[in-house]
Amino acid sequence: MTGVDPLPHIDFYRAWLAQGYAGDMAYLHRHADIKADICQLLPSAQSVIVVGCNYYSPNPEMPYQVARYAHGDDYHHIIKAMLENLGERLKALEPTLEYRAFTDSGPLLERELAMRAGLGWIGKHTNLIHPRKGSWFLLGSLLTNLNIPASQPFEKLHCGTCTRCIDACPTEAIVASYTVDARRCIAYLTIETREEIPADMRPDIGDHLFGCDVCQDVCPWNQRFQTPTPHESFYPRAWLQSKPLDELLLLTPHQFELQIAPRSAVKRPKYRGFIRNVAVVIGNSQDPHYLPALATAIERHADDPMLVSHIQWAQGRLG
Q1: 211, 289: one domain
Q2: What is the mean predicted confidence (pLDDT) over 82-96?
Q3: Which of 40, 105, 221, 312 fits a 20 to 30 Å CA distance from 52?
Q4: Quick one: which of 82, 56, 103 has its CA closest to 236?
Q5: In which band, very low, low, confident or very high, does the pLDDT at 11 lie, cut at 50, 70 and 90?
């Protein structure tokens, strides 16, 4: 629980934007003023209920990696439904309640709100870390017009001298403690970038098909406290364990929409971005048995220069 007072980190956030670290995510610039004054989202707001939901599940055996939050159903729908349910239950107790529910798609500095609400501290990898649960959890916020006493804020940073996340980042995207250059982050490159992935960055993407968990995998707090989520909706879908890369590469747009995209965060880069990512992972596989699939794919996407360039790059990598 926390109030709606201005958040001190807004200045750090504006400086981060000014450095260009947001890349092509123009919506972050558009939302900056709202993040500085969250009462624009609910004029009657007096307090924010901040919640966390564990989404950790062990990685299934597969020849590529998908960020754990995208293994199952789209967390935006899951968390939003939970928050709406909480809001309606509170409204039954207090009929004058006004509220708005937000996941990370809303214009909030949610990690700072969570820190101020006592849920943990922001780690050097910029994820929120709970001292007994690690960082494998998603955040949600319920803005309310209720005057609820605030929780004790979490003020101490417990990363100490540890730099495992910084050292392990495949693309050196954590340019300083508590600072990520999104333009170098595998999550940004495979999800937010809609056109060309810079050629010099592709080898470092390795087998990451969608997003990246490396900085969380190596975090001592996760290695000590990670526990599987009780929510089955977050567990891996069947295609993650059954579809090889060559089959994914040759999916049609219709097959992608039917087999991969429904209620899944993996749909965010859309069909073209997904096929592009598959081509990059194949190019990094060092496995020439994918060459026939690449030849078929280049014929299928001959009218798309962006996809052709990535498929040709993969062909070149495989010899």
Answers
A1: no
A2: 95
A3: 40
A4: 56
A5: very high
Per-residue pLDDT tens over the stretch 122-167: 999 999 999 999 999 999 999 999 999 999 999 888 999 999 999 9
Q: What is the pLDDT of residue 222?
A: 96
74, 104, 167, 213: the active-site residue: 104
Sequence-distant (≥ 6) Cβ neighbours of residue 126 within 8 angstroms: 111, 174, 178, 179, 180
Q: Domain residues for 23?
A: 1-236
Cα–Cα distance for residue pair 54/59, rounded to 1 Å:
15
Domain co-membership, 248 together with 101: no
- What pLDDT does 80 receive? 94
Same domain, 283 and 316: yes
Whole-angstrom Cα distance, residue 142 to residue 277? 35
CA 174/CA 162 separation, integer angstroms: 13
**Total number of residues shown for the chain:** 319
Structure tokens of 266? 């993996």
**Pair 220, 254 in one domain:** no
Per the annotation, the verdict on 74 as an active-site residue is no
Residue 83 identity (one-letter amino acid) = L
Q: How far apart are CA 135 and CA 99, in angstroms?
A: 27
At position 92, the amino acid (one-letter code) is A
Domains identified in the chain, total number: 2
- What is the bridge-based pairing of β-strands 208-210 and 99-102? unpaired
